[in-house]
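Page 37, continued from 36.
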C-alpha cells in the first residue's frame, strides 16, 4: 500500500495492521534494482557536460563574440540592433524556437525514461509525477542552463565591446533563462498532447505536476523507442532510418494526384506536392529562410555589418533550404536504382534543386528589396549585394548536394576513442563548408567588388564537388 507525503499514517483495522510504505522509498529501491549505479553515473555525466559547456563558452564563445563586435562602430551597431526590423527578427526567432520545442515534444519529449523503468515503475500505482520527476528535472535544468549560458555569453560580449551597457549581460542571462524555462514547459506540453485524451489544455501547461501525471505509459514507450531508433541510426550513419522514424503520417492533400508529363516537370511537381502534403516542412523552410534572408540582406547591404552576421544568416538559410529539399534526400536514399522516368542522376538532381533554389532566391530577393527600402544603402553596394546573394544561393545548393549524397560514414568513426568526433565531423562537413566558403566569399566581395568572380568560383567549386559525389554514389550503387 502506498501513500503520498502529507497523508496520515496507516492505522490498524479489525486487528490487521496495514504496512506503511512511502513512494520515495519504493523509488529509491527501484533505482538500485532497475538502474543500479547507472543513475549516479548519469548525474555525473550531466554535471560534466555542463562544466564542459561553461568552459567552452568562457574560452571560445565570449572572446569570439567580443572580437567580432569590436570590429564595428558601437554607436552604429547599437542603432541597427534597436531598429524595428532587428527587434521583429529577434521576436520571430524566439517564437520560432518555442514553437519548434513544442513540435519536437510530439516526437521526443523531455521526459523519456528507459523502457525497463517505464514497464516496472511508471506503470505501477506510484504517483507518476514522482516516478518521472528525475528526467523532467534533468531536461528542465539543461534547458534553463543552455539559455542562460547563451545569454550570458552574448550579453557579456556586447557589454565588453561597448555596444551595450554593463548590466546587459545580467539582463540577457535572465531573459534567455526565462526563454529556456518557457521552452521546457512547451516541450513537455507537446509531449503530453502527443497522446490523445482529455485534460490536455493550458492548465496542464501551467501546472507541471499535472502535466507529468498526464503522460501516458504508451506514449512514454513510443518516445523511448523513437529515442533508441534515432540515436542508433545516427551513430550508425544511417539517416534514412532516422527520417523514416520521425516522419509523420500524411494528413493533407491526400486527394491530390501527380499529373503526368515530361520527366523534369514531373519531378518538380512531385516536390511541390510533397510540400503540400507535409506543410510543416513548408512552414519550417519559410521560417528559417526568411530569418536567414533578413540577416543576409542586412549584412550584404550594410558595409559596416560584422562578418559574423553573414555566417549566422547562412546557417539559418541552410536550414531553410534543407526543409524544402526533401526530394533531393529521397533521391540520395534510392541512388543507383533504375530510373522509372529514364533520366540520369544529374538530371534528377537538377530537377530536385528547382523548388528549394527558386523559393530561396525569391525569399532572399524580397529581403534585399526590404533592406534597400528601409535602410540607408549606398548605391555602390546594390550590385555587389545582388551578385553575392546569387553566389550564396548556388553555394546552398552545392552544400545540400554534399549533405544528401555524403555516402557512408568513414571507417574511423567506428573507433572507440575518436570515433564519435569523426562521426560528428562527417555529419557537419557540408554545413561547415557552406559557412566557411560563404563567409569568405562575402568578405572578398565586401573588400573589393571586383572579387565577385572569385566568390562565384568558390561556389562553383562546391557545386562541382557535390555533383562529383552524386556521380560517385551512383557508380557505387548501380544495379
Amino acid at each position: 500500500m502506498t501513500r503520498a507525503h502529507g497523508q496520515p499514517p496507516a492505522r490498524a483495522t479489525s486487528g490487521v495492521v496495514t504496512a506503511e510504505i512511502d513512494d520515495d522509498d519504493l523509488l529509491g529501491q527501484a533505482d538500485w534494482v532497475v538502474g543500479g549505479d547507472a543513475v549516479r553515473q548519469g548525474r555525473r555525466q550531466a554535471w560534466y557536460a555542463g562544466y564542459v559547456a561553461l568552459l567552452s563558452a568562457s574560452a571560445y564563445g565570449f572572446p569570439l563574440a567580443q572580437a567580432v563586435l569590436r570590429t564595428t562602430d558601437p554607436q552604429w551597431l547599437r542603432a541597427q540592433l534597436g531598429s524595428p526590423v532587428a527587434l521583429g527578427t529577434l521576436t520571430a526567432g524566439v517564437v520560432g524556437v518555442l514553437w519548434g520545442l513544442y513540435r519536437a515534444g510530439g516526437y521526443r519529449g523531455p521526459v523519456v525514461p528507459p523502457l525497463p523503468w517505464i514497464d516496472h515503475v511508471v506503470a505501477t500505482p506510484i504517483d507518476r509525477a514522482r516516478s518521472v520527476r528525475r528526467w523532467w528535472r534533468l531536461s528542465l535544468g539543461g534547458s534553463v542552463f543552455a539559455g542562460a549560458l547563451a545569454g550570458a555569453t552574448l550579453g557579456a560580449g556586447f557589454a565588453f565591446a561597448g555596444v551595450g551597457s554593463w548590466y546587459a549581460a545580467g539582463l540577457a542571462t535572465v531573459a534567455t533563462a526565462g526563454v529556456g524555462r518557457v521552452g521546457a514547459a512547451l516541450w513537455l506540453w507537446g509531449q503530453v498532447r502527443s497522446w490523445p485524451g482529455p485534460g490536455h489544455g493550458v492548465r496542464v501547461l501551467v501546472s507541471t505536476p499535472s502535466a507529468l501525471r498526464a503522460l501516458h505509459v504508451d506514449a512514454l514507450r513510443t518516445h523511448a523507442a523513437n529515442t533508441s531508433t534515432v540515436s542508433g541510426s545516427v551513430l550508425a550513419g544511417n539517416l534514412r532510418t532516422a527520417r523514416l522514424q520521425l516522419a509523420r503520417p500524411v494528413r493533407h492533400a491526400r486527394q491530390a494526384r501527380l499529373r503526368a508529363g515530361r520527366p523534369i516537370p514531373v519531378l518538380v511537381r512531385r516536390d511541390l506536392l510533397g510540400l503540400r502534403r507535409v506543410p510543416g516542412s513548408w512552414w519550417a523552410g519559410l521560417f528559417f529562410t526568411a530569418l536567414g534572408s533578413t540577416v543576409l540582406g542586412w549584412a550584404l547591404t550594410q558595409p559596416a555589418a560584422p562578418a559574423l552576421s553573414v555566417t549566422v544568416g547562412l546557417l539559418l538559410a541552410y536550414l531553410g533550404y534543407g526543409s524544402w529539399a526533401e526530394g533531393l534526400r529521397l533521391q540520395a536514399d534510392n541512388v543507383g536504382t533504375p530510373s522509372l522516368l529514364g533520366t540520369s542522376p544529374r538530371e534528377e538532381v537538377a530537377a530536385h534543386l528547382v523548388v528549394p533554389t527558386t523559393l530561396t532566391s525569391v525569399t532572399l530577393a524580397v529581403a534585399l528589396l526590404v533592406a534597400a527600402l528601409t535602410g540607408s544603402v549606398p548605391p555602390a553596394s546594390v550590385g555587389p549585394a545582388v551578385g553575392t546573394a546569387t553566389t550564396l544561393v548556388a553555394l546552398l545548393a552545392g552544400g545540400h548536394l554534399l549533405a544528401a549524397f555524403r555516402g557512408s560514414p568513414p571507417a574511423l568513426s567506428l573507433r572507440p576513442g575518436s570515433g564519435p568526433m569523426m562521426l560528428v565531423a562527417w555529419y557537419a562537413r557540408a554545413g561547415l563548408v557552406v559557412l566557411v566558403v560563404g563567409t569568405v566569399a562575402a568578405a572578398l566581395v565586401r573588400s573589393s567588388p571586383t572579387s565577385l568572380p572569385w566568390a562565384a568560383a568558390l561556389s562553383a567549386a562546391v557545386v562541382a564537388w557535390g555533383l562529383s559525389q552524386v556521380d560517385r554514389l551512383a557508380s557505387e550503387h548501380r544495379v
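The CA atoms of residues 177 and 283 lie 27 Å apart. Flag for discussion at group meeting. Residues 38-70 form the longest helix (33 residues).
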